[in-house]
Each structure stands twice: as C-alpha cells, then as structure tokens.
Amino acid sequence: MLRLFMILITAMVQSCTPGHDTFPEIQGHRGCRGLMPENTIAGFIHALDLGVNTLELDVVITGDSQVVVSHEPFFNHLISTAPGGREITEADEKQYNIYTMSMDEVRSFDVGLKPHPKYPLQTKMPATKPTLEEAIFAVENHISKNGLKPVRYNIEIKHIKDQEYKYFPPCDVSANLVFKAITKAGIKDKVIIQSFDAGCLEFVHRLDKTLPIALLVENRDGPAHNLARLSFKPEAYSPHYSLVDTDLIKHCRREKIKLIPWTVNEVKDIEAILRMEVDGLITDYPDRAIEIRTSLFGHR
C-alpha cells in the first residue's frame, strides 16, 4: 500500500496530458461479482441498474459450439451445484468440463445458490450460465424497457494454449464463434474483446480490424514487451491494478492506448487508481466505484 500511496502522490502533482478525458468508465467485473452471482443475467441487470458503463464478462465454448458466459471452462466448486443438488468439490470440479457438455447440460447446473466465501455480500438466488446471446438479449431488453443509457460489453475470451482440445478449442474457433455471436446480436459497435492470450486477439483482429481490443496483463514485463506480442495497437492495455505506476500511465498516453486496470475492489484502492487519471477500471463492486467517481469527477 505504501507503493500505491507514493504512486498516487506522484500522479496528483503531475499534469494530465492535454486533451485527456479524465472521466473514467466503470466496468462491472463479471457483472457485479461482489453483489450478485458472477456472470449471470441477474448480475448483469443489477450492474446496469447501478449505472456501469461497461459489462465485463468471460466466455468459453461448449461441446456443441455454444458461446457460454463462464470464467472457467468447468464448474467452479465455489459457485456451482451439480444437477439434483449434488455438491461439487475442489477435487472433482474439473471433471465437470463445459467443453465436453451440451448447452442443455450446462443449464442443469446452478451457479447462484452456493454462498461464496470471498463475497459475503452476494445475493443468493437460482441462476444458470447463459449463452452470450442470451445475456446480450436480456441486457438490451432491460435497457430498452427502462430507458437506460447504452452499455458496452467487454468480452474476455478464455484460452490456455496447453489445454486446447481438453478444455478449450483452438483460438481461431473461439474467435470465430464469438464474432458470429456479437454480429448476430447486432452489438459489434458496443463491444471490446479482451484476452490474456495474444494469439486469440490476433485472430479477432483478422476477422475485423475495426473491433476494439484490450490486452490483459498480469506480469511485470512492462508495456513495451507486452504490446510487442501483438502485431497491432490495441485500444486498451488492461493490467492488474498493482502494476499501474506513472511510467505505465506515460507510456499509454504516449501511445494513445487506454489504461483500464483490474480488479479494483477496496475503497482506498479505487480512489487511488481513479485519482491517477486512468481511463477506467474493472471492479466487483461498481456501486463503490461509481460513488467514488462521482465524488471526484461529478456526474456526466
């Protein structure tokens, strides 16, 4: 925390790059994981009602080639209950492999009733993993019915190279299926695609060079090294918030790349990161982040 405090003080005394928009966007991580079951329609709707600018969500692929909203390619024991109320343990969670299931099988698991030890404020309710198209339809319908402002979708394609064909299809398959889903849903102009896997982002970029892309980062190799993994300049650089410092801010400003760190949850960290004039942040608690943003920057 001392390091973050010193970074904050340095950032506050430096002038912002002329013309930089200091009103940051708030992205609801997996909807609003701190408050509602993650990556569920109910969580996305609640995040909308709180006033997020962007819904951050994760996608994997089922055995019948459906794009399903899920952080893991299996049913995580912390949030999941098997059909018939059977418990899923940490030891056996990976046998519940979404890549081997049909979407109908995926829907037979509950992901909203099990209390989460890390998020005691979560409202518990019956919930299932939706397809990407189902989630988009529900969000757009809620916006239309309630006269809410449009939101963006930050869609993370999950992929681990050495787990291809076991838990994930090859990158090009995932990229094509996601691209087809967002095209069919008519939201290409509202989407940003992100991934830790540069290869997946390359495939997305080949499909549509106008589609905004964010590179997720959790290493300390630095922005120059990480960005060199891509053959193009992404719209956003998205590191863990502990990696944000004045050098990174300067690099992103110089390259005209948005800086959107993740996952910023504690009040003191949200305030410190927002004062550093990032372009946005990803949080499990968008209610906290929106309140702090309002206190710092007012309404817009």
Structure description:
The chain is built from 10 helices and 9 strands. Helix 6 links the parallel strand 5 (191-195) and strand 6. By secondary structure, it is an alpha/beta fold. The protein is globular and about 50 Å long. It is 34% helix and 14% strand. Strands 1, 2, 3, 4, 5, 6, 7, 8 and 9 form a 9-stranded mixed beta sheet that branches. The chain has one domain: Phosphatidylinositol (PI) phosphodiesterase (TIM Barrel), CATH 3.20.20.190.
Helical content (DSSP H or I, runs of 4+): 25-40%
Number of strands: 9
- Distance N to C terminus: 30 Å
Q: What is the global morphology?
A: globular
Radius of gyration: 19 Å
Rounded mean pLDDT is: 94
Q: Given the helix and strand composition, which structural class is it?
A: alpha/beta
Order of helices and strands: HEHEEHHEHEHEHEHEHEH
Mind telling me which CATH architecture this is? Answer: Alpha-Beta Barrel
**Count of structural domains:** 1
CATH topology: TIM Barrel
Largest sheet: 9 strands, mixed
Portion of residues in beta strands equals 5-15%
CATH 4th-level superfamily: Phosphatidylinositol (PI) phosphodiesterase
Number of helices: 10
CATH class: Alpha Beta
> Which segments are poorly predicted (pLDDT under 50) over 5 or more consecutive residues?
9-19
